[in-house]
Design a protein that fits this description.
The chain contains 4 helices and no strands. With about 70 residues, the protein is an all-alpha fold. The chain has a domain of about 45 residues.
């Protein structure tokens, strides 16, 4: 999954509009305009245990929300 995320990010950055948008938002978020260059290294550094810890923290059964969408009158 990490390789997929990194690959799609690199492919997206081939478009100048995507690169400009990425740089602008990264600057806006205080990451610095060149932070897109660190993406692959940062994504590669995430471990399975770190991902599990985040999932345990935020994906809590008691806080789930279920939305059911149906056509009107169904």
């Amino acid at each position: 999954m990490q390789r997929y995320a990194i690959g799609t990010h690199q492919i997206a950055l081939q478009r100048k509009s995507t690169l400009a948008s990425c740089m602008a938002f990264d600057e806006l978020y205080g990451l610095g305009y060149a932070s897109y260059r660190r993406y692959a290294d940062e994504v590669s550094a995430v471990t399975a245990e770190q991902l599990r810890a985040v999932a345990r923290r935020y994906l809590v059964e008691q806080r789930r929300v279920v939305a059911i969408v149906r056509p009107e009158g169904a």
